[in-house]
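Exam revision sheet. Question 4 asks you to relate a sequence to its structure. Input first:
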Amino acid sequence: MKRALIYINMGLMCILTTGLTLQADELPPLTQLHAHNDYEHARPLMDALSHGICSVEADIFLVNGKLLVAHDIKNVKPERSLESLYLLPLQERVLKNRGHVFSEPSEFTLLIELKSDGAKTYEALEPILLKYSKMLTEYTPAGVVPRAVKVVITGNIPRAAIKGDKSRLAAFDGTLNDIDSPISADLMPWISDDWLAKFNWFGTGELSAEKMFELRKIVTKAHLRGRQIRFWNAPNIPSVWKAEREAGVDLLNVDDLEKAEKFIRLEHAIPNGLPE
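Answer key, structure tokens:
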């Protein structure tokens, strides 16, 4: 008889092997996963949401006054704007779910990579974000006003411009060079860097004790500053995810959304292994 893998989490059950599944909104959202280059999926944003993923990445170019989503400038299309692919659908979700992207309250991050000139692209981005301010986390001199979606800027970051905003709707990420930076976590909530450049491990065998120690040290330093840690260019395989999770890495940078979802849900549902 075919066994069923039963995920029990927050009082909800999802039976995977029998074909009986719950809708994505009924499952606890996953704050541990980041949908890398999300716009390259068949259904940008929607595929990530269907897997319960709480962080997505959109690369943008400023083209003739419009913010268009693409990895390379040659691939931009007028209909694929930041608003149409991400901001409008997120707004609809937030309205539907009474102030949250998912039916279960959970922080959602939209990572926006500025691919064109940083200062000019951010200048064009600010009024667009303002249109959706009711759902975006706001940073003011009086403190942070948390809302459904947190915007983090990466890529060609105009740090001076973002720092200079007295009230803003976005933060930015740093690199490992910023690991000891005194910049506040409200301004720089993430540290993002190249996994292979730092560890040169593709997931075969075990991550060496020396490199695991170094990884844990990086995570500890980031957390002491109140920041989350994410590595891009990491192989999308369970052995790498396992090492990252064991070291305390906050966000797994993933392309295979289905495999990553199963990995995280299994990790949290059955900590001691599969049932007999």
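Marking note for examiners. The longest strand covers residues 55-63.
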